[in-house]
Design a protein that fits this description.
With 296 residues, the chain is of the alpha+beta class. The protein has three domains: 85 residues, no CATH class; 48 residues, Roll (SH3 type barrels); 84 residues, Alpha-Beta Plaits, CATH 3.30.70.100. Helices cover 46% and strands 21% of the residues.
Length: 296
C-alpha cells in the first residue's frame, strides 16, 4: 500500500518541484508560485477581516468621528495587507530581494502606463490624511452635488439626492475647485430672493417672512434669520431672506427653499400681497390728435 502511495506521489512531487525560472540565483518552482498565489489570495481576505476586527474593538470605542474611523480602518487594512504579503512570500520561500530585478521595469511601466492610477492612489492618501473632504460631507463639484459615501485609495463615491452614486477620481478633489458645504460646520447660510409690487406694505412683508422662517423646521434659529429690503427694482420691491440650515438634519437645501416659497405664496395670497412681475409703460408721442372711429 505504501509503495502505491509513493508511486502516486512521485510524479506529483516532480511536477510540484519543477523549476520554472531562476531570478537572482533563486530557483522558483511551480510549488513556490502556487503557494505564493494562494497565500496572496488569503492575505487580502485576512487583511479585511483583521481591519474590521481592529476597527470594531480598538477604533470605534475610542474614536467618535465616522470619517476618522474610516481613515484608520483603511490604513490598518493596507498595513495588514503588507504584513500578510511579506509573510506569505516568506512561507513560500520567495525572498523580497527577487523583486529588485523588476524594479526598473516596474518604474518604466508606472511612468508610461500607470500615471493616472498612481496619481489617484497618492491623492487618496492625501485625502485620508489631510481630510479636505470626509465621509458624510456635502460636496458640490461640476454638475455633481451630494454626500460623500466612501473615500478609497483610487476613487471617492458621492451620492446625490436622487440616489445616484458617482465614482470620482481622487485627483479631482485636489486639482479642481470643490465646494464642501460641511468642511468645518454643518450649519450653512442660504438665500431666497423675491419681489413684491410697488405700494405693498413692506413692514407687513417683513413680519410675514419672519413668521414663516421661524416656523420652518428645517431652519435653525441661531444665527437668527434675516429679512433684507434689498432694492427698489424696475418692477418690484426686492427682498432677500437669509437663513441658516443644519445639513445634518435636512435632506436637501432645495427642499427647504421650496417649502419656504410655498408658504410665501400662501401667506401673500391670504394677506392681499401681490408678487411682482415685469411691467412696462409705453408713452406714444404724436404731432396731432389721433382720430378714433367706432365701427358698428
Amino acid at each position: 500500500m505504501l509503495a502505491l502511495v509513493n508511486e502516486f506521489l512521485a510524479p506529483v512531487a516532480l511536477i510540484w518541484n519543477h523549476k520554472l525560472l531562476t531570478i537572482g540565483g533563486i530557483k522558483l518552482s511551480l510549488g513556490n508560485l502556487v503557494m505564493a498565489l494562494t497565500m496572496l489570495l488569503f492575505a487580502t481576505r485576512l487583511s479585511r477581516a483583521a481591519a474590521r476586527a481592529i476597527d470594531r474593538r480598538l477604533i470605534q470605542p475610542f474614536v467618535d468621528d465616522r470619517s476618522s474611523q474610516h481613515t484608520y480602518q483603511t490604513f490598518v487594512f493596507y498595513g495588514c495587507l503588507a504584513g500578510f504579503v511579506t509573510l506569505s512570500l516568506g512561507i513560500a520561500g520567495i525572498p523580497l530581494t527577487v523583486f529588485t530585478v523588476f524594479g526598473g521595469a516596474l518604474a518604466i511601466g508606472v511612468g508610461f502606463g500607470s500615471q493616472n492610477i498612481v496619481n489617484n492612489f497618492i491623492s487618496g492618501i492625501i485625502l485620508l490624511v489631510e481630510k479636505p473632504i470626509k465621509v458624510g460631507d456635502i460636496v458640490e463639484l461640476d454638475n455633481i452635488s451630494g454626500s460623500v459615501l466612501a473615500i478609497g485609495t483610487r476613487s471617492t463615491q458621492v451620492k446625490n439626492h436622487e440616489g445616484k452614486i458617482f465614482v470620482v477620481p481622487n485627483s479631482f478633489f485636489l486639482e479642481k475647485s470643490v465646494l464642501n458645504w460641511s468642511y468645518e460646520d454643518p450649519i450653512v447660510r442660504n438665500t431666497i430672493t423675491f419681489g413684491v409690487a410697488y405700494g405693498t406694505d413692506v413692514r407687513k412683508v417683513q413680519t410675514l417672512c419672519l413668521e414663516i422662517l421661524a416656523e420652518n423646521p428645517g431652519i435653525v434659529q441661531e444665527p437668527k434669520p434675516v429679512v433684507v429690503f434689498d432694492d427698489f427694482a424696475d418692477s418690484s420691491l426686492t427682498f432677500q431672506l437669509h437663513f441658516w440650515c443644519n445639513l445634518d438634519k435636512i435632506s436637501t437645501l432645495a427642499e427647504v427653499r421650496s417649502s419656504i416659497r410655498f408658504e410665501l405664496d400662501d401667506q401673500f395670497k391670504s394677506n392681499g400681497i401681490e408678487m411682482a412681475f415685469p411691467q412696462r409703460d409705453m408713452n406714444l408721442k404724436v404731432l396731432k390728435p389721433l382720430e378714433v372711429r367706432v365701427l358698428s
